[in-house]
Amino acid sequence: MEYDFEEERIVEEIKEGNAKKILLQLPEGMKKEAFRIAGLIQKNTDGEVVVSGSSCWGGCDLAVDEAKKINADLLIHFGHAPFVRTDFPVLYVELYSKLDAVSLLDKNIDKLNMNRIGLVGSVQYIKQFEDLKKYLESKGKKVVIPKKKGFSAYNGHVVGCEYNSLKSVEDEIDGFLVIGNKFHSLGAALMCVDKDVYLLDEQSNNLELMNGERDKTIKQRAIAIDKVKRARKIGIVVDNKIGQYNMKTAEKLKNELETLDKEVIIIVVNEFNPGLMNFYDVDAFIDTACPRIAIEDYQRYGKPIINSREASVVVGKRSWEELLEKGLIGFA
Ligand code: SF4
């Protein structure tokens, strides 16, 4: 898979802004590029580069505190679109894919069993939407690219916890075609549970129906919620990351759970990880941070873990059916 690192734009923007100390923040799969990018900047500008070694899972995970601590005057964040507001200067390099998406879809077109299609994808593919739309229309399909909503930065753009735009076109289409990866397509499938969702996957070179994966996940979530309902001691986890910090929700949930005679503690972390299992007497956890941690990483934790939307079922504010219908399982 090849991505556009927009090297020229990076150098230009650093020179224009006269940045002297720059913090680079790369997502996990791209940290291998750190030496190359740092070298490029140091060779072509007066800027000194420091690289963030902290985890970076989304645009919510902006290393502003690190940048301030090292006295940087610019943060370059790779791989995600703007997600959180900050007063710190940030240059986003969204890493557009160089994939020939039309050829990949053409190879797999016989598997695409729908006529009215909602076309969406992760930020790496937003530049490919128009070509894909034209191609699909040439095959007699109707294509809708949903207008951006919520945390989405572009039309058709989806984020792991933001699929609101899909709901707005649900009535016009038979299903969705997601260009991206399993993470993004499963999120779409959980948002619109009655629609077929196909993933066009650059990694596997395949077009895959996500409905089976969705069914498995929904069962897993129903079981997890049921276990948390029966838990006596609950740990509510708050993550310090700039775009995931949600103490208010944690405090509200704590009060609501205590009225149900649960014992509750709030646990603050810098990074959600299975070290939480050291709280050995906690029966179950509620994740108030990234809602996908409870879903994607469920098997990494030895105790039931649900997100705060799912917790609304535990405290009786929503029914399981409403959660499903509104697509709230993986929603921030
Ligand atoms: S909260 Fe989770 S899903 Fe949402 S942007 Fe951050 S890492 Fe992605």
Word description of this protein:
The strands form 4 sheets. The protein has a 5-stranded mixed sheet, sandwiched between helices. A 4-stranded parallel sheet has the order 3-2-4-5. It has a 4-stranded parallel sheet with strand order 13-12-14-15. By secondary structure, the chain is of the alpha/beta class. The chain is built from 12 helices and 15 strands. Helix 1 crosses helix 2. The chain starts with a strand and ends in a 7-residue tail after the last helix. Helix content is 33%, strand content 20%. Strand 7 (116-121), helix 5 and strand 8 form a beta-alpha-beta unit. 42% of the residues are buried. The longest helix has 20 residues, at 211-230. It folds into 3 domains: 3-95, 3-Layer(aba) Sandwich (Rossmann fold), CATH 3.40.50.11840; 101-209, Diphthamide synthesis DPH1/DPH2 domain 2 (Rossmann fold, 3-Layer(aba) Sandwich); 217-325, Rossmann fold. Bound molecules: iron/sulfur cluster. Residues 57-60, 83, 159-161, 243-244, 290, 292, 332 line the site of iron/sulfur cluster (SF4).
Question: What key phrases describe this protein's structure?
Answer:
single chain, 332 residues, alpha/beta, Rossmann fold, five-stranded mixed sheet, four-stranded parallel sheet, 15 strands, 20% strand, binds iron/sulfur cluster
Topology order in helix (H) and strand (E) letters: EHEHEHEEEHEHEHEHEEHEHEEHEHH
Number of strands: 15
Going by CATH, the architecture of the largest domain would be: 3-Layer(aba) Sandwich
Overall 3D form: flat
Helix content: 25-40%
- Main sheet record: 5 strands, mixed
Whole-number mean pLDDT: 96
Number of domains: 3
Spell out the CATH superfamily of the largest domain: Diphthamide synthesis DPH1/DPH2 domain 2
Distance N terminus to C terminus?
29 Å
Oligomer: single chain
Instruction: Assign the structural class, choosing from mainly alpha, mainly beta, alpha/beta, alpha+beta, or little secondary structure.
Output: alpha/beta
The unique ligands bound to this protein are: iron/sulfur cluster
Stated plainly, the CATH topology of the largest domain is called Rossmann fold
The low-pLDDT segments are none
How do the strands line up in the largest sheet?
8-7-9-10-11
Number of helices: 12
Strand content: 15-25%
User: Roughly how many Å is the radius of gyration?
Assistant: 21 Å
What is the name of the CATH class of the largest domain?
A: Alpha Beta
